[in-house]
Amino acid sequence: MRAAAAGTLGFALLVACQRPAAPPPDAVARIGESEVRYAEFERYVQRDVGETGTVLGSDVLSELFDQFMDERLLTRLAVDRGLIPTAGAAAAGPRRAIDALLAADLRREPDAAEVDRYYQAHRQELARPERVRLRQILTQDRKAAEEARREVAAGTPFEEVARRLSKGPNAGAGGDQGELARGDLPPSFADLIFSLKPGEVSPVVPAEYGFHLFQVVDHQPAEVVPLAAARPQIAARLRQQGADRLLRALVQDARRRYNVKVYERNLPFGYEGSYRETHAKKTR
Is the residue at 21 inside a domain? Predict the structure, then answer.
C-alpha cells in the first residue's frame, strides 16, 4: 500500500511539475520567454487611437491587439537580424524596425515592363472625368457680388477682383480653385459651371453662406492619363504593393519563428483576433 501510495504521489508530483505555471494576472501574451503586459497594450491604444480600451468594442480592440502583437514580433525580428540595436529598440518604436526590415529585403525598383503591364491592366482606374479649371469670388452680400461682376464686365481681370473682394478660399491666389470634376462640385452649381465657356463669368449665384461668382478658365475633356504622366504614380503603387506583401510575409515568418501565446482569459474584452489558439488550429 505504501509503495502504491508513494507511486501515486510521485506521479502526481511529476504531473504538477510538467504543468505550466499560470501566467501573471497582468500578462496578456508571451513572446518566447518574455511576458507582454496589458499596460503596454493600453499605452499602444492610447498613443495610436487616442482612446482607452473602455470605450472601444471587442472587434476594434481585437484588431488593435493583433497589430500591437505584430509590431512587437517585427521589432524582435529586426533585432535578431541585427538591423536595429537591442538597446533602445522599444524606445525607437516599431516604425524603425519595419523600415529596417523592408529596406533589407525590398531593394528592387519596379522596371518599365512592370509599369507598362500595370498601366494596361488598370487603364480605367487611371481615367479622369471631364474637368474645369475654376475661379470664384465669394462675398457675404449680394451688393458686393454685383459690384465684383460689374468690375469684371468692365475689363478688370477676375483674379484681381477676387484678391480685393472675395472672402472665399484662395482669394489671395485670385480665387483659383484648381481643376474640378462634376463630382467635386455641389450639385446645385455643377450644371451652371460646366455650361460656362472658357473666360465666361456666371451670374451672381446665392448660397446659404454668401454669394458666388464663377469663372471657368478652361475645360479639360475626359481622358485616360497618358502612360508617361502615370508612370511615377504607378511605380509608387507597385512599390507599396511590394512592401505590403513583404510585410505580411515577415509577420507570418515572425509568428512561426517565435513561440507566441495569447492569454485570452487575462484580456478584459472578448478577443476575436488571429492569435487565438482555436484560429491557429483551424488554419493548420
Answer: yes
Same domain? 73 vs 155? no
Structure confidence by residue, pLDDT tens digits, 154-190:
999 999 999 999 999 999 999 999 999 999 999 999 9
Entry pTM? 0.58
- Whether 135 maps to a domain, the answer reads yes
Angstrom distances, CA of residue 177 to CA of 49, 159, 271: 33, 11, 48
Assign residue 276 a region: left if phi > 0, alpha if psi is -120 to 50, beta otherwise?
Answer: beta
Residues spanned by the domain of 257: 2-107+243-283
Q: 174 and 94 in one domain? A: no
Amino acid found at 230 = A
211: which 3 cell numbers? 454669394
CATH number of the CATH domain containing 155:
3.10.50.40
pLDDT digits (tens, 9 = 90+) for 32-43: 888 999 999 999
User: Is 227 inside a domain boundary?
Assistant: no
Give tens-digit pLDDT for 207-251.
989 999 999 999 999 988 899 989 999 999 999 998 899 999 999
Instruction: State the pLDDT at residue 283.
Output: 40
* Burial letters 17-29, b for 16+ CB under 10 A, else e: eeeeeebeeebbb
What is the DSSP track for 141-200? SHHHHHHHHHHHHTT--HHHHHHHH--STTGGGTTEEEEEEGGGS-HHHHHHHHHSPTT-
* DSSP for 40-94, written as a single string: HHHHHHHHHHSS-GGGS-HHHHHHHHHHHHHHHHHHHHHHHTTSS-STTHHHH-H
User: What pLDDT was estimated at residue 84?
Assistant: 84
Cell triple for 88? 533602445
Say yes or no: 215 and 252 in one domain: no
